[in-house]
Amino acid sequence: MPEVYLNSKFVGHIDEPRLFVEKMREGRRRGSVGTQVNVHFDEQQDIVEIECGKGRARRPLIVVKNGQPLLTERHIRQLERNEITWKDLIEQGVIEYIDSAEEENCYVAFFESDLTPEHSHLEIAPQAMLGLASALVPYANFNQSTRLNAGSKNQKQALGLYVSNYYLRMDMDVNVLQEPQVPVVQTAIHKISDYQKHPAGQNIVVAIMSYKGYNMEDAIILNRGSVERGLARSTYFRPSIAEELRYAGGLVDEICIPDKDVKGYKSERDYRLLEDDGVISAESQIAEGDVIIGKTSPPRFLSSLDEYSLSSSTRRESSVSVKHGERGVIDFVLITENEEGNKLVQVRVRDDRIPEIGDKFTSRHGQKGVVGLVVPEGDMPFSATGIRPDLIFSPHGIPSRMTISHLIEMVAGKVGALSGRYVDGTAFDAEPEEKLRKELLNLGFRENGVETFYSGETGEEFQAKIFVGNMYYLKLKHMVANKLHSRARGPIQLLTRQPTEGRAKEGGLRLGEMEKDTFIAHGASLLLKERFDSDKTLVPVCEGCGTIAIHDEFKKKSYCPICGDNVEIYFVEMSYAFKLILDEFKSLCIYPKLVLKSKY
Q: Are 346 and 308 in contact (CB under 8 A)?
């Protein structure tokens, strides 16, 4: 006998599951069962699942009976006159929300012309199956599914105008594209989502060809002339914050230019940009290490006696400086109070970002790539009509990824640019490719989108015809200026004496097991002696008991805590991490004895 589960909990048995499911759905359409309820009959397991819990993805579909949709022309006219609303259509059972489980029992038609008596539902619009970001991809139905997914994710990382009042805000790590444009090839969702108010890309001329191998493996080539004329320029904003905190005993921080007797005073050059109140002035050029907000704090560890004689204990320096590897211009200074009434200073740094080698770009079809070369305009290939592309895209990115929409957008963009109109590229309902080809032919170009190109360096005609067109390209937030990192010597951790981790902390670059193999393969194995001694240390070891001895630098003598003075002590070179694990063994009452052998 079939079992019934409500939100995955067993609630009973039924005799006729199909009839039960049918009655539940009819009740939902009549209003006797809640519209949030979904029911699903699993024939293989012979169970009925009823779901009404939170967190399910559900989508609306038009109900179909006997091959006819319940949504009629009368309903559409009433909607246009605002006589009924979406809610009324749901209450009347014309439209119902289906979850992924119930969809298994549905037979959904794409278009009204496809309907047969077997169909149970009709799509409101075929693109309704896509999310907001996926629906922004033009000609999305010509794409492979994983690339469409990647294309929708890439759009979320594109630089544009994220808010119109960005100039008055103190947001962390934000970018603004300086001249964003509305795409020539649009979808219906661009109009619905008011995309023209927050565009995130630019329309550029793209040629598909190889250029000296600099655009292999997804890399792209940029035209320096386009970059100099403002292609993909953006501004990076980052705030720095300091506040005057209050401590026990009436002690407070002070935002000011630190005095020379303050503990940790840097140098006069570091404080040169500060004004009398200890805060930097707007439009100052800053670089790594410069102080933005001067601040002093009371000493960290005060005894009860010190509190009464503060003059004896000096204050410590706690200014806010420009982080390692950053630079820019002071954009905005805000002096205010926090919730506790303490002084709060916020300073926003602005940095102009001009496209360079290593910056990441993408089309709306998941075809992302980094800049491999910025070519002088005179060396760029040019077409018979004198057009030089802004960007050169590698042809090898197309066959394996099957992003046909990438190619169709180029033709559609070319038609839109030449005829001065927007092209509709809505998924499943776009302007057909044949129509675009005919229009391109009438405009005086080849219908297949290719043109004769000439070498910019020699002026020779290329043997192959080059596919070229207009396209909406996005600059992503992953810029090489934020990721570039190198170090020689620098800060180390207190515990292990190994280099710190991460770019922000000026950390070391880890050389792993595989990197080690490459050095050996190159015949540079001796280089590893140099690479693997970041925490090299000299440790005094007692020859008698084999434990770590003590070396008194002040008295210039060494002794063993177990054997005393009358024993030989040798300095052994080892990794500090190894010395640390020996100490940890001792804490577990394990005796790690080091047996010394002669070096010679």
A: no
